[in-house]
Amino acid sequence: MKYTLPRFFLLLLVAFTNLLPESRATVRLPKLVSDNMVLQRNTKVPIWGWADAGENVTVQFNGKSYNAKPGPDGKWQVNIPPMPAGGPYDLTVKGQNTITLKNILLGDVWLGSGQSNMEFQSAWLKYTDAQLGETNFPNIRLFTVATDLSPVLLDDIKKGEWKVCNRDNAYNFSAVAFYFARQLHQQEKVPIGVILTSWGGTIIETWMSPESIRKFPELQSQVAGMNASPDYFDKIKQENGLKVQEWEKQSYRVDAGYANGAAAWNSSEWQPADWKEIKVPALWETTALPDFDGIVWLRREFTLPADYKPTDAILYLGPVDDMDQTWLNGTLVGGTKQYTLPRKYPVKVGLLKPGKNTVVVRVTDTGGGGGMYGTTNDLYLATKDNAARLADLSGTWYYRIGTDFKKTKLPAPPTVDVGPNSRPTLLYNAMIKPLVPYALKGMIWYQGESNAGRAYRYRDLFPEMITDWRQKWGQGNFPFLFVQLANFMKTDTEPVESEWAELREAQAKTLAVPNTAMAVIIDIGEANDIHPKNKLDVSKRLALAAQKLAYKKSGEYSGPVYKSMKVEGNKIRLTFDHAPDGLVAKNGGPLKGFAIAGADHKFVWAEARIEGKTVVVSSSEVSNPVAVRYAWANNPDQANLYNQANLPALPFRTDDWPGLTTAKK
């Protein structure tokens, strides 16, 4: 077909016009600036987004207009002047297009971050409605940042939306953060917004900015070249794949359960005559294998009825710390390398049989707790549709040690996939930087378990992260509240060195950073679970700190804090801050959790008694004492020194002798 010249130009004009929306950027907002959001009251509120460079952008809020022009990078920002609590309001942004946001409140905004204990939802904890309590609060808003990682700084998060607090939204939100928000809302009578940005099992280094990382040479080398390499993650995967293959070969060579590169202890016919009993589920540190890291084979026999008809089935084992390979009747049915994931392995028709069946699990634990640590309801065999349980697998198992990593010196294994801990800054880039400069009242932080093996370095990393985040937000020293590690693992019968105690000490030292506070929870942890189910008291103690630091209310917010010591013959007298009304032994009886040592550095359990506002510590075994420690253990669950506000004393030591993690970076 032929066109005349004028018609040709007309068609060309139409085509060009249709391309305009693609060639020019419409005004857009970050996902955090959206319907149902809470804006921080009584302070300047930044509102930002993107458009064409030089385009006129107008933001209308509460009867006033604010104008901006995007810079060369397309980003624009306006600052709404301080306003009191209130709402709901609409907010309109106009450029080439118009965006109207609804149901906006002015109140207090808190950011919650950390690893799994911050992330843990009430739904995961299986709280009943009675345990969860009241949940319908239209003036509490909840925002969850979708997990994401990036080698470069991102402008926006992957996914997220503000949700009005109701039963379902509260149930599927961080239990700690929800309880904290509810506590503050009920006390302050203002809208509360919580932005949750967390990821289970993460180390602090991944939450730190590139600028912070440059201050630590051993970390700077790990991120060299990240910003300049678009295929950086692919390179890491290739490198890790080779490392994993080599590590697995090494683990087979040192594992007595392997012979000639093949599993030898997985046979359903092999009789475990020299295997020992162990109760499952439980972390083995709390039962048969205290302070053990390595490879352990676990074995359990179960019986199916004689009239059992072959069918597809599912084997449920709950979470396994850290990694597992699992066989059923000698056939490998699955394996997982993430300690927080419940195991769920399909069993094909024909693998099960009437009569005796055997499940064997090879567990590799590289540090911290180890074993099959879920609940009794997590371990069972069921039909594929889970309509019928075929066998209960909790109770008595048998175990045998394949290898002890402390003896074989096998290092922790790498992972093939790129995860949040693969390199520093990955979560800062994707889950923190895009939130700046959203105005905040303060932050709550629950993390540290994954850094316990390098506790001394945490003394430097944690304060640096807090200082850097505050600088990035540009709001001064807003309150930063954090949770100290809970009591966890088996209780020690004698005083010992402890990585977890050293991490708690690093957290306590961070209180030297201005406007910080710490919730001590060594009395509400669980020996068998790194995720204590009592999140309500955690949030209450955070809220006490918020009342003091953020809302300037009177009242005690901290347990007793060690202040000084004085040697008095064969005794040591201790004084404390944060005990204005005196000290108490929780639940009466003698004080527990104190240890004392002489110049030989050998600690023994001590007698301790309260005298006025001091504690006097001694032992008949130490005639010339020089140091005292309190609650210095993985699980100091016997420690019972409190103040009159019913808050537990911070774990402490009076010495500065080198610890387990002194040289670890």
Structural notes for this entry:
InterPro entries: Galactose-bd-like_sf (IPR008979), Ig-like_fold (IPR013783), SASA (IPR005181), SGNH_hydro_sf (IPR036514), SIAE (IPR039329). GO terms for molecular function: hydrolase activity, hydrolyzing O-glycosyl compounds; sialate O-acetylesterase activity. Pfam families: SASA. Keywords: Hydrolase. There is one protein chain. Among the domains are: 151 residues, Jelly Rolls (Sandwich); 93 residues, no CATH class. The N terminus is likely disordered. The protein is built from 14 helices and 36 strands. Strands 1, 3, 4, 6, 7, 8, 9, 10, 24, 25 and 26 form an eleven-stranded mixed β-sheet that branches. Strands 13-23-14-19-16-17 form a six-stranded antiparallel β-sheet. It has 665 residues and is of the alpha+beta class. Helix 6 crosses helix 14 and helix 12 packs parallel to helix 13. 21% of the residues lie in helices and 31% in strands.
Spell out the key features of this protein.
Galactose-bd-like_sf; six-stranded antiparallel beta sheet; eleven-stranded mixed beta sheet; alpha+beta; 31% strand; 665 residues; disordered N terminus; 36 strands; Jelly Rolls; 14 helices; globular
